[in-house]
Amino acid sequence: MSGILEINNLNIDFLIGNTRKKIIKNISLHIENEIFAIMGETGCGKSVLAGSVLGLLPSNAIIEGSILYNGKVISKLSEKEYNVLRGKEIGLVPQSSLNALNPLLKIKKQIAIPIKAHKLLKTRTGIHSYSENLLQSLSLKKDVLNMYPFQLSGGMQHRVTAALGLSCKPSLLIFDEPTRGMDMVLRNSYASLIYSIYKKQNIAILLITHDLELAQKLSHRCALMYNGEIIEQGKTEELFKNKRSKYFQSLLEAMPKNMTRRNQR
């Protein structure tokens, strides 16, 4: 089945010396205009999978299989071709917002960089007005544009990082471990922000997370990874209800019950 993103029989090995270490094992999935969550514990390969979509794997990675974006094979693109795709077609919100922001640049300059690179807007006035509207859509005041990252609260930093991911109007936005290290209040607030982005921006979202509760609350469909493989995949509500694998059952038994699944869909 086709979609905005389609991954077919993907295998990824890392060449370490003369040894090939298998990281991703025969993964197939597709993402439509939805929130799709890839769940799994640290080290299961989910961030490597996301990196393969963005062409951000190290040079010792060996990729077999195919990755398609809107029907076009992107797994064989050159770095120059990927530079056109990243940001403009597929956006990324990395897991560490503070590390993702340049401490030496005001927020307005950081938002302007990808906009200029992809020639979304050309005039300073146009970029400034667009940036103001972008921040306001994420419940940030326009004054944030003239601030440095260290002047922002943790929640504001996360929202600014999301703004950077959205700045060039991608069709697919990847959130890599969006709630890692957050307290419960910030976590719930950011979950609401992700859902709001999906509804208002009308884009597909790929959620990479170890947070099963977040995936259950936000996603339409999801996949569970273990040791480089997808061991369960399907509609989120059905997957969490049926719990076919013992591994998934054990994860759910350890999951706190603090978030309520959204019923707006």
UniProtKB/TrEMBL annotation:
It catalyses: Ni(2+)(out) + ATP + H2O = Ni(2+)(in) + ADP + phosphate + H(+). It comes from the Bacteria. Keywords: ATP-binding, Cell membrane, Ion transport, Membrane, Nucleotide-binding, Translocase, Transport. Its EC number is 7.2.2.11. It is a peripheral membrane protein. It is found in: Cell inner membrane. One of its GO terms (molecular function) is ABC-type nickel transporter activity. It holds the Pfam family ABC_tran. Residues 7-252 form the ABC transporter domain. InterPro entries: AAA+_ATPase (IPR003593), ABC_Ni/Peptide_Import (IPR050388), ABC_transporter-like_ATP-bd (IPR003439), P-loop_NTPase (IPR027417). One of its GO terms (cellular component) is plasma membrane. Belongs to the ABC transporter superfamily. The complex is composed of two ATP-binding proteins (NikD and NikE), two transmembrane proteins (NikB and NikC) and a solute-binding protein (NikA). PANTHER family: NICKEL ABC TRANSPORTER, ATP-BINDING PROTEIN, OLIGOPEPTIDE TRANSPORT ATP-BINDING PROTEIN APPD. This is Nickel import system ATP-binding protein NikD.
